[in-house]
Specification:
With about 200 residues, this protein is of the alpha+beta class. About 25% of the residues lie in helices and about 50% in strands. The chain has three helices and ten strands. Strand 3 and strand 4 form a beta hairpin. Keywords: Signal.
Length: about 200
């Protein structure tokens, strides 16, 4: 009986050893100081902060828009109305803007994202719409004195292939229910306003 008991105990120990070894193998290894520093840097880069909360508090929601656009700086602008539905995405890291309306008498749809990059310390904006096949990317800063976001970008001129057009954009916060977007393009060394959008928060 003792022999059988010892044999059964030995067999049980042998069967348990692979599972024990597997648990030991899958246990997370201790990180080196360099790895810990890397992990902390990534966590800091990925964590939304006050800049992100500010963007959401200022721009989240549904907005009615009045767009003015200039094809010729010396001529009166064309006027269109539209709507922008701005929603928070990616856990409060970015704001998505779904724009619908008219542009030059044609149905117009646009999709944009705005956010703040913890790594570069810059605000960014991306834009694409149904009147182009490209992605427009701009980067900028915020001036608390004027309550304005200022962005810079470059645009390829479809009328002059190979020509780069410098672009400057501003978004000024008038109050919690109003904001004004302006876009300026520099052509032949002269900057002119090409677009203005007045935003009014929908009730």
């Amino acid at each position: 009986m003792k022999i059988r008991h010892l044999a059964a105990l030995s067999l049980g120990l042998l069967m348990a050893m692979p599972a024990f070894a597997q648990d030991k193998a899958t246990a997370p290894p201790q990180m080196s100081p360099e790895q810990k520093a890397m992990m902390e840097a990534w966590q800091k880069a990925a964590t939304p902060g006050e800049r992100h909360k500010q963007l959401i508090s200022e721009f989240e929601g549904t907005w009615n828009t009045k767009m003015s656009s200039w094809m010729d700086p010396s001529a009166p602008p064309s006027m269109e109305t539209g709507k922008s539905v701005n929603t928070t995405v990616l856990g409060g890291r970015q704001l998505r803007m779904d724009y619908s309306g008219q542009y030059m008498g044609q149905p117009f749809q646009g999709l944009g994202y705005i956010g703040f990059d913890n790594v570069t310390g810059k605000y960014f904006s991306t834009w694409s719409d149904n009147m182009s096949t490209g992605l427009f990317v701009s980067e900028g800063d915020y001036d608390p004195a004027s309550k304005s976001y200022s962005y810079r970008a470059q645009m390829h001129d479809p009328m002059k292939p190979g020509t780069i057009v410098p672009v400057r954009q501003t978004m000024r916060i008038v109050d919690k229910d109003h904001a004004v977007f302006e876009m300026y393009e520099t052509r032949d060394g002269k900057e002119n306003k090409s677009m203005q959008i007045e935003y009014t928060r929908a009730k």
